[in-house]
Amino acid sequence: PGTAQAAHQLTQAIAVGEQQRVVSAGRSQVCRLPQGAQLFTQVRPPCLVLQGAELGLDQRLFVRGNHKQPGEPVPRRFLEVIAREGEEYAMGLEAELFPGRGGAGWQAVTATIYAPDKLRLSFLPRLEAGMKGVDTAPLIAFFTSPLGERIIGLEISARQALLDDAVEAAAREALAEMRARDDPRLALIDAFIEAGDLVEYNVAGALNANFAFYRGLRDGGAFPDPMSDEEMLADVWLQERAIRDDVSEWLHSYLALAYRPLSDDELSAYIDFTRTAPARRFNAALFAAFDEMFNTISYMLGRAAAERMKGADL
């Protein structure tokens, strides 16, 4: 099958429970990916709550250390956070695939790939297409309410904070402590993740992005031997369990951090909203738009990385 069909099969495999069949097929293949390439995982996945601002609203980011004191309204910032995450991640790719050979040229390439204005031009038309026929009035009403504005601010602030590795490590440690004491807040976080189907959406998106990355590597000439789409799909599927575990752990630690200031009643109200038909349509449209954007980014990263890997082999 062609590339588009292969990617579709990869996404659908999650829904129909074909993981074992594909992984078993992958074990019969000789893995020919370059050293380090299999370590690729997509930049942190988006969650519904992070994109309430993509309805055209601004946010008030909360003053660091004081969740009751909103700062000044700022333009939509989530894609800027994605851009920062992506550029930092690209530096990690350099360390894995062509250590010490990226330099200013690699930084310039990745800055161009992750330019926020380009991300916005790629993302927003796809989101708008996915939202055709959806009644956005309930969405705007919620996200412009005091609770909705507070949620957006808390989440953007938490996502920005997690750009610091030390903060992310502390968030994961805090999650472990919550689990050790069987904190009842965990049940609400689980309910929110389930209401938005966040693990499945993000695992599917990460697998498809990894497939796009491998295609970029292949098309850029990074592999010593040609690889078919089917062979790459099998190798990508071997990462499914590790990606699923990482996605689940990150979502739980991030949401526990972001929602810490919310009362149980406030979080329950947000869960109820997430279960409504307009919110579910919005969630699906968001992930579809982000998946397309990330697939393009991942392919471009793969092509760019391949050029530098070939230079490293000379």
Layout of SSEs?
Blueprint: H1 3-16, H2 19-27, E1 59-62, E2 70-74, H3 78-97, H4 103-113, H5 116-130, H6 137-143, H7 146-161, H8 165-180, H9 185-196, H10 198-219, H11 229-237, H12 240-259, H13 264-274, H14 277-313
Antiparallel strand pairs: 1-2
Helix pairs in contact: 1-10, 1-11, 2-11, 3-4, 4-14, 5-14, 7-12, 8-12, 9-12, 9-13, 10-11, 10-12, 10-14
Description:
This protein is mostly helical and 314 residues long. Helices cover 70% and strands 3% of the residues. The chain has 14 helices and two strands. It has a two-stranded antiparallel ribbon. A hairpin with a 7-residue loop joins β1 and β2. It is globular, with a radius of gyration of 20 Å. The N terminus is likely disordered.
Keyword list:
single chain, 314 residues, mainly alpha, two-stranded antiparallel ribbon, 14 helices, 70% helix, 3% strand, globular
User: What is the typical, i.e. mean, pLDDT?
Assistant: 78
- The count of DSSP E runs of length 2 or more, i.e. the number of strands, is 2
Measured as a percent range, the helix fraction is 55-70%
Unreliable stretches, pLDDT < 50, 5 or more residues?
A: 1-51, 56-75
Shape: globular
Structural class: mainly alpha
SSE series: HHEEHHHHHHHHHHHH
Largest sheet: 2 strands, antiparallel
Rg, please? 20 Å
Binned strand content: under 5%
- Report strand order across the widest sheet: 1-2
Instruction: Supply the number of helical segments.
Output: 14
Distance between the termini: 34 Å
